[in-house]
């Protein structure tokens, strides 16, 4: 089966930096997505990694190590509006394009 | 204009009833999906259609039947609703079924079965 692990909850202070980790054990690998989901809303796309290394997009960066089955999402200069759930999702191998999601990390940003 | 829209946003119904959720996307995408998000926040794929053809049909009860009248619409019909069907159902779309394609989600339909 496919297994994706993320911490359930994290808390950080406004203006700080936070790193949300994701480890995965899947049958093959075809890419990893990070989505942000505010309470009661739809998940929205943040980043995509398929090769090892760091992808930077403004205040958000995402890192991937395929050999370790590991990714992290780095959020800099935290703002109150960053309080949300962050979902890690992986495409395992196979002909069906089934994106497998972790259960999400609920981030609370405190003033 | 909303890219992926779903109706209704909230649905409260009794056990045993039949209900439908509608989804429409105006992004010109070829692929659409239905996901179920349970109380533990796991987002799990149920169905996927590409150009009106079913390509993913996960292990869901056959009380759930998707229908795609055209590639911009994917509706979900649920027969004989059960308590365990209570969840948030998200529709999503992507340009095609390539691994690099981002999925765009609708606002969700919160289904409560009493």
Explain what this protein looks like in three dimensions.
The complex is a heterodimer of chains A (111) and B (114). Chain A is globular and about 45 Å long. Chain A is 0% helix and 54% strand. The relative contact order of chain A is 0.35. With 111 residues, chain A is an all-beta fold. The mean pLDDT of chain A is 93. In chain B, the strands form 2 sheets. In chain B, strands 2, 4, 5, 6, 9, 10 and 11 form a 7-stranded mixed beta sheet that branches. In chain B, a hairpin with a 2-residue loop joins strand 7 and strand 8. The N and C termini of chain B lie far apart (34 Å). By secondary structure, chain B is mainly β. The mean pLDDT of chain B is 92. Chain B is globular. At the A-B interface, strand 5, strand 9 and strand 10 of A face strand 5 and strand 10 of B.
Q: Unreliable runs of chain A, pLDDT <50, ≥5 residues? A: none
Mean pLDDT of chain A: 93
- Mean pLDDT of chain B, as a whole number? 92
What's the story with the biggest beta sheet of chain A? 6 strands, mixed
Strand content of chain A: over 45%
Spell out the key features of this protein.
heterodimer; A: 111 residues; mainly beta; 6-stranded mixed sheet; 5-stranded antiparallel sheet; B: 114 residues; 4-stranded antiparallel sheet; 0% helix
Task: Outline the secondary-structure elements.
The complex is a heterodimer of chains A (111) and B (114).
Chain A: E1 3-5, E2 9-13, E3 18-25, E4 32-37, E5 44-49, E6 53-57, E7 60-65, E8 70-75, E9 84-90, E10 100-101, E11 105-110
Parallel strand pairs in A: 2-11
Antiparallel strand pairs in A: 1-3, 3-8, 4-5, 4-9, 6-7, 7-8, 9-10, 9-11
Chain B: E1 4-7, E2 10-13, E3 19-25, E4 31-37, E5 43-50, E6 53-57, E7 64-70, E8 73-78, E9 87-94, E10 104-105, E11 109-113
Parallel strand pairs in B: 2-11
Antiparallel strand pairs in B: 1-3, 3-8, 4-5, 4-9, 5-6, 7-8, 9-10, 9-11
């Amino acid at each position: 089966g496919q297994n994706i692990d993320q911490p359930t909850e994290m808390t950080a202070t406004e203006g700080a930096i936070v790193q949300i980790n994701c480890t995965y054990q899947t049958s093959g690998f075809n890419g990893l997505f990070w989505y942000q989901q505010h309470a009661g809303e739809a998940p929205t796309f943040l980043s995509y990694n398929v090769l090892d290394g760091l992808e930077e997009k403004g205040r958000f960066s995402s890192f991937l190590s395929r050999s370790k089955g590991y990714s992290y999402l780095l959020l800099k200069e935290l703002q109150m509006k960053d309080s949300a759930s962050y979902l890690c999702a992986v495409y395992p191998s196979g002909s069906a394009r089934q994106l497998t999601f972790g259960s999400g990390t609920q981030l609370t940003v405190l003033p | 204009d909303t890219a992926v829209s779903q109706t209704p946003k909230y649905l409260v119904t009794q056990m045993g009833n039949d209900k439908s959720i509608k989804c429409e996307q105006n992004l010109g995408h070829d692929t659409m999906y239905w996901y179920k998000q349970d109380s533990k926040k796991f987002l799990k794929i149920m169905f996927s259609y590409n150009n009106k053809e079913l390509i993913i049909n996960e292990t869901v009860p056959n009380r759930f039947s998707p229908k795609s009248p055209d590639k911009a619409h994917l509706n979900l019909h649920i027969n004989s609703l059960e308590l365990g069907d209570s969840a948030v159902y998200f529709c999503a779309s992507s340009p095609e079924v390539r691994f690099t394609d981002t999925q765009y989600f609708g606002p969700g339909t919160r289904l409560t079965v009493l």
